[in-house]
Amino acid sequence: MKHVLLFLALTSSFALTAQIPDLLEEELNDVTDEHLVDKSTRGVSVNVYYKDGDAYLDLCRGVSHGTTAITPDMVFSVGSTSKLLASVALLRLQELGMVDLDDSIGHYLPDLSPNIPNDIPIREILQHRSGLDEYVDGGSVTAMNNDYNHLWTPDELLQFIGPPVAEHGTTWAYCNTNYLLAGMLIEEITGEDYIYAIRELVLLPAGIETMTIMGLEPDAGEFAHAWDDGYITPISGDISSLPRISFGSVGWAAGAYMARPVDLVNLYRAVFEEPSALLNATSLQELQTVYTTGWGGQMNKYGLAIFIYESPTLDVAFHTGAWLNQAAVGIDLEYGNVASVAINDTQGQPTSVNVRSLMIELLRSMRYSTIHAGVEEFGPEMQLFHPSGDKQFASGELQENITVFNLLGQPVYKAKNSSTIDLYNQPTGMYVIHSDAGIQKIILE
Question: I want to staple 325 with a disulfide (CB 3.0 to 4.6 A). Which of 77, 150, 284, 406 is the partner?
């Protein structure tokens, strides 16, 4: 018997009425152009949301194919950024009391395969801590390439899973098999097919109607042609004329969704903005509970279908993906800015635009602009704080809140109900004061 999913679509308008400041727009364009220098990528599509101005910006470069330019409405295969849909869906089902992430997968899908132990907790599936073998390997890719019109069922894909590579819960290893199983769990728990369940549980409540699974649903816009280098297919060149049924059904819950960059931006806004349009506070905390991956750098911490990158200048929840195209999306967890990048290369090309690097730098640019907003407009005649000693500043007016930032965006001084600032332990250079009266640039000499 099917469960009936009756979820109210909390549609979000995310209105495109505001404007990004001219100087920031210029900087975002420059950052995008810098990442294209000496790269072979034909087409790039970027969308950013700037929280401080409640504004979106599209940045498109290059061509889809021939002389057809990339446009903001073109859809890309966004690969593993799709995984967030499955984790959010399971968290929502947990909120509804239909599942517990600490349940074993065998409770819902017993004896799937001799290579899939029944006792793996669902949470470890979503965290990539299952110890399972990868199903997207040479065997499955060869089988996919043998018949691009074949509709692979999840049960058929189980044949490509070998014996476990580790005891579950003992290590972290990125593995698409985990999200193949997540999709199967969602179907079993809801009694609905995966596409319908994701639409009802995630996409409609997020106000998104233009994310679809390739080959299994009609594209919601013109497809940005995919250019392979023999990595996914035996073909080197434009592979967009190939049927995508096999691509979509093999990638499925692990990475087969199509989207515009703005769709990924709005998905991350719906998940992470407070209050979240999709998750309660407990679920959002679970989503962001991270484990060390061992990869190091920006990808060293993983939650439930998101990496968390923490640095002195930026804290970002993000994911990347590659399956016919490449994509990356991330949100600045403190400032609420979001950036998404998609390119029409597949994988394996060292001269491709680095989508993750570009996404991070766009967020960094917006973070700095948020911190320094209005500095140039706050003229000397309006300055509130004046030098009063060695690296000290004073105002004749009491300020309820004072924060001083360095140029890395780090708060170096905070005070409440004060009219003085003391930066005796700070090096020389420029700083920015945020107070109740406004924003002011100061120089330590």
Answer: 77
